[in-house]
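Structure ticket #2291
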Amino acid sequence: IGELTTTILELAKTAEPTGPYGFAVFALMLVLGLAGRRQAAEALLAELGAREGGPLVDFGFVTWSALAHGYAELLFEGNPGRSFRHLEIAERFAPGLADNVVRVVLAYFRATLYYDCGDFEAAVMHAKSVIDAKGADAVPYLRSWSEHVIGRVRLVTGKLDEALAIATSLAHSVDALFTQRARSLEAQVLLAMGRLDEAAAKAETVI
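Resolution: structure written out below.
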């Protein structure tokens, strides 16, 4: 990740503000954020900010840049209000793009934001739209993350059997980071069920 980040930062100094560039920065920033590499992620966002100061003619760049900033507000600052502001910008420009991936990412972003704001019905609705979307074929991991959102909703709303079934089905992903999160959800559900020994054993696989 570090080598790729360095390469993109170097390229960013001369890169044109295009959709593909915006998507590359968004994707890497998200990975860095989830991996706890905040400083590197913020360096990428700073490069985006430098491009935003000039004339912008590529709606793809504007959309992916807004999504990158929105996710950063959520991941680093825990501020869904500001994230929604960036989401509104992305939604304003996305309809002009022939890009199914951005629509799937927007739907997943809505699901996570509504979950954080406590609107669980909306969170599940948008998560399900990602799972059912044909555009998700290009980013299949977002289907798993959307299932995870639904699992968290089932946990906090007391539907523990459903939550456990979802968490268990997700706990064997090839993505190590996602597997940890799925196992963490499993441990939380088991704890809520009062199955303390099982919850402790599952938690130990996450640490």
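Closing remark: The chain has eleven helices and no strands.
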